[in-house]
Amino acid sequence: MSYETNRFVVEHKKTPSKAEAKTRINNFGEIYADFKPGQADKQASRCAQCGIPFCQSGCPLQNNIPDWLRMTAEGRYEEAYRLSSATSALPEICGRICPQDRLCEGSCVLEQSGWENVTIGAVERHLGDLAFENGWIEPIVPVQERDQSVGIIGAGPAGIAAADRLRTLGYKVTIYDRYDRAGGLLTYGIPSFKLEKDVVARRTDRLAASGVEFVLNCDIGEDVTFEELREKHDAILVATGVYKTRRLTVPGCGSTGVVVALDYLTMANKEGFGYNVEEAAEAHLNAKGKHVVVIGGGDTAMDCVRTATRQGAKSVTCVYRRDRANMPGSDREVTNAEEEGVSFEWLSAPKAVLGDADHATGLRIQRMRLTTPDAQGRQGIEDIPGAESDLPADLVIEALGFEPENIPVMFNQPGLEVTKWGTIKVQAGEFQTFVPGVFAAGDIVRGASLVVWAVREGQDAAADIHHYIQSNVSVSLEAAQ
Hints:
This protein has helices at about 20-25, 40-45, 55, 65-75, 75-85, 90-95, 105, 110, 120-135, 155-170, 185-190, 195-210, 225-230, 260-275, 280-285, 300-310, 330-340, 405-410, 445, 450-480, and strands spanning about 150-155, 170-175, 215, 235-240, 245, 260, 290-295, 315-320, 345, 350-355, 360-370, 380-390, 395-400, 400-405, 440. It is an alpha/beta fold. It has three domains: about 20-135, Fumarate Reductase Iron-sulfur Protein, Chain B, domain 2, CATH 1.10.1060; about 150-240 and about 405-480, FAD/NAD(P)-binding domain (3-Layer(bba) Sandwich); about 250-400, 3-Layer(bba) Sandwich (FAD/NAD(P)-binding domain). The strands form four sheets. A five-stranded parallel β-sheet has the order 3-2-1-4-15, with helices on both faces. The N and C termini lie far apart (about 60 Å).
């Protein structure tokens, strides 16, 4: 049965079912189910088909959301999927992990007017899963095969998105990555309860089936030089992401009981893959039986606290220096964490790690308060004199954000200019760096950001690379004549 749109008055917002907290903390499976047949149609039919679709402008990819919602409501699922994938190389992944409450759904006119938003992310995920189940997604067969090749450094979302678009245009594409599996943080950073790994693998498998070559366990600068890649390919895209973790600087922070979020999450994902992990390393980076404190307020911090509950921690606490209203992470993820038994210490900052060099025993925190808003309306924070307290902590996880590695040094490429934040500098309005034929996109240009922005920039960089190569081809043909 198909439904017309504008049914938000008679159809109430309904999200896919979510596993009960006491059940879901016993495994790493995705906590949200998919829509059952007909449910996505009903939810899509709530769309008001606004003349100015703020959901679309709220999406970094500028997805044609009202159009594919209308098609879904009409039961035209394959058309709806093809329209969603026209602007996104990873729609079913973004449907799972985007903070829709801060993007498309938060911008929905129905949400702003008190009718509750359309469940855009869940419909997007549903369409992508349907596409794989029904064989609508096949290996890429370019209309025209080209002689030129592109090397992509980094198999994360920016690299995958760029490879998808470049292969569609007919280029030979090779992706180089330091890890043993493609996917970047989609594979080793994001826990399976948010994104099961077969969902990532089927996308990278499709690229491989389309002729994209993956060179894994490859460190640029060690296993192969950057100059060798430039000689081999007509263009290079640097899409490494940002992996350097910001560290604590308080007394005791050098204790072995203090670990960085990415090491912790990577170990948990390796265990999920069934790897034989060194016993000492596994014990060091596992929360089982420990009092765990995670420092930070973003989605990575939420990934850590929710992983710790599943590993059987005695207690899990998140410490963040501002209040919940000013937290940078998704409110949905905070709610999920609270349901799973995580405690939050708002307006608190780490002051010292207690214990010794070999073992942490606690974290001393300084209570904070918000200050008067500045001219832009942002409140600062300041210490409350004498307001300190201690939390038990056998494992302290730093989730303070990520910074770029020193790419020019790693790649022995001093011509790659960087900003004052260490991100790669690109030319105004495009993705080409100041080294001819070398492009950059994703977090290594933006700084640590959302997966959806990495997808957007990977796709846009692919368009820039295509223009660059074809311009050079035209110049070569003119010179030959």
